Amino acid sequence: MEIDTLKKSLGKGLDSLIRSNNLNNNIEEQVQKKDEVFLTDIVPNKNQPRKDFNLASLNDLAESINEHGLIQPIIVRKIDDKLQIVAGERRWRACQIAGISKVPVSIIEVNNIKSSEIAIVENLQREDLNPIEVAEAMKELIDLHGLNENRLIKITGKKKSTIINSLRILNLPLKVKEYIKEGKISRGHALALLAFSEESRLLQVAEEIITKKLTVRQVEKLGSNIKKLTRNKSIEPDMYIDNFKSIIEERIGLPTKISGSSKSGKVEIKYNSLDELNKIMDSLK
User: Fold this and answer.
1) Which end of the chain is more exposed for a tag (fewer CB within 10 A), N or C?
2) What percentage of residues in the chain have a pLDDT greater than 90?
3) Structural domain of residue 74, as residue ranges?
């Protein structure tokens, strides 16, 4: 498999991403080795952004692989004595269905953060993640890997408002998120549902979207008397303030209030004794 094919299969986003790693300047230097390995030597990544794999689609891919072979190598990294998938789990699953015993791989050296970034970029480039999977992947990069806003924008190629709205979808009730995963409710409908503060009314409208086939505009009109949608020209919420607040409270163990934005504001930590004040001082050392 030629390097140019590898570049094409992963999309321009990945090439851009790897150049920005400060590890190397191009994808050729990222590939340590190209090999053919047993399928049993490869393990999936439990943090893979895509959680749902359509069986019918996998069967179609398996038929194609049986006829033409696996054209695009699976991108992996070494983890102990196994090769963990960085990109290409769908192909790996299809090869299992096809009964393929050995597959081509490209082995790269990346840490957990870069592995997550590449997996997200590959899936976003092909646009085959559902809105919940996209949001959960972004949240993982923020919560587990501490990525800042600019880095997340660069990795995903998405606008700030798009990222914020994706994360807001995770605030919807579990039942509604299941509808989104199943494709019964679109991303546009999901954003419109965020205007409903009462969960009972929100769930009712969600059901009506499915049964009455309401358009996004119709849902927006239903919610217009409750509050303005955050997709208008009002100030966008800062997606990191709540996260920072939780981190501070977890480390110090005291009630914390943050007002303002990531650009400016103030942090207030409430204490009720000298011991608690000393705890704050110790945390600042």
Assistant:
1) C
2) 18
3) 3-110
> Which residues are marked as active site?
89
- What is the per-residue pLDDT for 188? 94
Is residue 223 domain-shared with residue 257, that is, in the same domain? no
Q: Is the pTM of this model over 0.85?
A: no
SS (H, E, C) the chain: CCHHHHHHHHHHHHHHHHHCCCCCCCHHHHEEEEEEEEHHHEECCCCCCCCCCCHHHHHHHHHHHHHHCCCCCEEEEEECCEEEEEECHHHHHHHHHHCCCEEEEEEECCCHHHHHHHHHHHHHHHCCCCHHHHHHHHHHHHHCCCCCHHHHHHHHCCCHHHHHHHHHHHHCCHHHHHHHHCCCCCHHHHHHHCCCCCHHHHHHHHHHHHHCCCCHHHHHHHHCCCCCCCCCCCCCCCCCHHHHHHHHHHHHCCCEEEEECCCCEEEEECCCCHHHHHHHHHHHC
Mean pLDDT of 122-133: 70
